[in-house]
Model the fold of this input.
Amino acid sequence: MKVFVTGGTGQTGPTVVSELIRNGHTVTGLARSERAADVLSGLGATPHEGSLDDLDSLRRGAEASDGVLHMGYGGDYADPEALIRRDRQAIEALGSALVGTGKPLVSTSGTLVMATGRITTELDAPDPGSIAAFRIAGEHACLGLGESGVRASVVRLAPTVHGPRDHGFIPALIAAARRAGVSAYIGDGLNRWPAVHRADAAVLFRLALENAPVGSVLHGVGECAVTIKSIAEQIGHLLQIPTVSLTVDEAAEHLGNPFLAKFFSLDTPVSSQHTRALLNWTPTHPGLLEDLATSDYLDPTASHRAEETWLRH
Done:
């Protein structure tokens, strides 16, 4: 399959591109810079000059493909309406090139669109009041293309997609623990957090492109409910520092970011049983707590990357 990929040079993208190529697919990746083009070329993919704002470029890339994987996302998070509009327009442009073909379009969302406080499944509707509600419009835009002869599906990734060179939520916790000399959780720390290894997520994206039925909503979750306390305790153990409980306000100061504190206070367990059964997807890579001990999370440069990422939010 000739696959057109957006977001192929992000945190998860290179692993997905490599997974596709390793399994016999040909990949063309959207590249908005020379650096991105070099990354794609190094992976064995063909760069396609353009950006998520260049809708003509997106259409051309999709038209020349047998299927599209849309992982690209970004913009000013202080302006969620602009984020929504940009993502929806990109999906509509990609989908317009596939209308009536039966070709796949797999778009990306996150499990944080789901309701909190209970285990949610792929069959539950997203929650308009969720912390990631700005991703819901993109889901609807993608799935709506199923009525126009596009094999549209959505992969919701866990908030923690872990593995080497992670610069997301977990390194932010580690960076804060290094600064403060304590590893922290909020309240009793029993709120639950889903996670998936990046290599397992890459397999899911490939399976979705190859086999997901039209209208599928898939959960990229390897572990349904890792408690924040267990994560904090593992970080404390590895850094040889105490583990403490904080209030949300104290956590905002500890993390240096109120947004992160709000995230880590959520109870967001999510099931992926339907996804596993539908696509015969079986995560095989280490879980989050094991990965913390065996990957590069304790490398000080990982904490530095996280701080740079969250200063931009």
